[in-house]
Specification:
It comes from Streptomyces dioscori. The chain is mostly helical and about 290 residues long. It has helices spanning about 10-20, 30-35, 40-50, 60-65, 70-75, 80-85, 85-105, 110, 115-125, 135-140, 150-175, 180-190, 195-205, 205-220, 230-245, 250-255, 255-275.
């Protein structure tokens, strides 16, 4: 049975849960645990950790499902990374990363709290309404077992909700006719995306690619000469998020308004604590 939700309630809930998953990609724990199984390159560790649920896939699958990485960077590490560490080995290492990282950011007392257990139960209930169709990253993660410990179950549920929304978001970007770099440039121009230097260093693109994408967006009337979104650009990014919301309503409608409100409250408290403990580098996001 579904319950009508306040406007953008699902998006707000997602936004406070997603950091509990995504902070792993910025963590020293990821490098340490993947290095212990032989994966020492930072990009290779990221590709392996996020793609492992799909099995030993090739570079084309990773480029397609990750969307905004330069294919040449992906192909430099995939499928070679699977010859170093199998997907099963990487998945086990990734779970150790989640455990160590959340304990460091939240502390053992919070990890053992009834609030974390409640958040895990609510988030897992929301995932019951997620759908696999045309959502490859979500579908692959949905086939993984739910960890027994509440904080890891919460992390797993946050991962499912992130990839479910993310897969839908990519479909919307295609519909908006934004290529990978244009999507990155326009998102950064909102002030909410990754800073250009982080994009260029982690996604494999060059400064010329960034400038060329800015030029194409200007030709479409979406970006000003100063690199700011025009009125049309702001409207497009708002529509992209609204369309993503529409494709991602099912889990939050399934949880219901009261459940979403409670999960958002719990997630806000946990993420606020994690951010205060340094979950992300300060320079990673924004227009700088």
């Amino acid at each position: 049975m579904t319950t009508a939700l306040p406007e953008r309630a699902g998006r707000r809930c997602h936004n406070v849960l997603n950091p509990l998953h995504s902070c792993q990609y910025f963590s020293p724990e990821l490098g340490t645990e993947l290095a212990a199984v032989g994966v020492t390159d930072r990009s290779a560790a990221y590709f392996a950790a996020r793609a492992a649920a799909m099995g030993a896939v090739g570079p084309g699958t990773v480029t397609a499902t990750f969307y905004n990485f330069r294919h040449e960077l992906v192909a430099r590490h995939v499928p070679e990374v699977w010859r170093i560490a199998s997907p099963e080995v990487v998945l086990a290492a990734r779970l150790r990363v989640a455990d160590r990282l959340l304990r460091r950011l939240l502390g053992d007392e919070v990890i053992a709290s009834k609030e974390v257990a409640e958040a895990a139960q609510l988030a897992l209930r929301a995932t019951e309404a997620c759908t696999r169709t045309a959502r490859p990253l979500y579908a692959a993660h949905a086939d993984l077992p739910v960890p027994e410990e509440p904080h890891l179950a919460l992390w797993h549920a946050a991962t499912l909700l992130r990839e479910h929304r993310g897969d839908g978001h990519l479909a919307v970007l295609l519909g908006a006719e934004l290529d990978p770099v244009e999507a990155l440039v326009s998102h950064t121009a909102t002030g909410k995306g990754m800073a250009p230097k982080w994009v260029l260093s982690s996604r494999g693109w060059h400064r010329e690619d960034w400038h060329a994408a800015q030029g194409r967006l200007r030709e479409r009337g979406l970006l000003s000469a100063e690199g700011e979104l025009t009125e049309a650009g702001v409207a497009l990014r708002k529509e992209i998020e609204a369309s993503t919301d529409r494709l991602d309503t099912a889990p939050y409608e399934h949880l219901g308004a009261a459940g979403v409100e409670r999960l958002t409250e719990l997630g806000t408290g946990l993420t606020t604590k994690a951010l205060a403990a340094g979950a992300f580098p300060e320079s990673a996001f924004g227009k700088g």
